[in-house]
Amino acid sequence: MRIVRPEESRLGSYLGALKRALVTDAKNDEDAHWLSSAIDAIEADSASFLAKQDDPEALGGDIKLPDGTFVSRIPGFTRWMWDGEACGSINFRWQPGTTNLPPTTFGHIGYRVFSWKQNMGYASEALKQILPEAIQLKMPFVELTTDIDNHASQRVITKNGGVLHNEFIFPESYGGANGLRYRIYL
Fold first, then answer.
1. Are 5 and 54 in contact (CB under 8 A)?
2. Total-model pTM
3. CA distances from 52 to 11, 55, 112 (A)
4. How far, in Å, CA of 135 to CA of 59, rounded?
5. How many CB atoms lie within 10 A of CB 64?
6. % residues pLDDT > 70 (the chain)
7. φ, ψ of residue 81 in degrees (nearest 5)
């Protein structure tokens, strides 16, 4: 498995995986919202969708949150996990000149492995592969968050050098669950 830039030649596989995941992987409204939004965006304008996947200048327009409000986009990019077909995605976002993130962004890196590709080490490998890009941005650390009961994600983070930074509560619009914030020092 390797992480790759989203591109037209892989879009059919990714779209098919998103549609399958909407049926098999959506555990809550936030998951369903994210999957549906991505599917809708691809089907409406695949070129625009692909352009927004690599947006280090934050030119892609505002982001709609699960509660329907909009926030300004921050610089970021997405890579797809690929083993001959779409396995998931990992994204990296930041604010230039600081490690701080807006209150609606819970970590610098987020990832999703489709359920039928889980337990193969793909998330750990994707995280390992994306960290050099954070180093190029001269970030002293990156933060990742996870639900307190998501032990698989905690293992992915600690396997890549993550150390627990603090415990917090996600806002109600994101489920209000207890969360853990980890840092990986670069």
1. yes
2. 0.93
3. 14, 5, 18
4. 23
5. 12
6. 100
7. -80, 130
Q: What φ, ψ does residue 156 adopt, rounded to 5°?
A: -60, -45
The CATH class, in words, for 2-139 is: alpha beta
For residue 26, pLDDT beyond 90: no
Q: Torsions phi, psi of 46, nearest 5?
A: -65, -35
pLDDT tens-digit series, residues 139-167: 999 999 999 999 999 999 999 999 999 99
| Placement of tokens 């600081």 in the chain | 98
Query: Which tokens belong to 120?
Result: 């193969």
- Walk across the sheet containing 163-169 and list its strands: 141-147, 178-185, 163-169
Q: What is the three-state SS of the chain? A: CEEECCCHHHHHHHHHHHHHHHHHCCCCHHHHHHHHHHHHHHHHCHHHHHHHCEECCCCCCCEECCCCCEECCCCEEEEEEECCCEEEEEEEECECCECCCCCCCCCCEEEEECHHHCCCCHHHHHHHHHHHHHHHCCCCEEEEEEECCCHHHHHHHHHCCCEEEEEEECCHHHCCCEEEEEEEEC
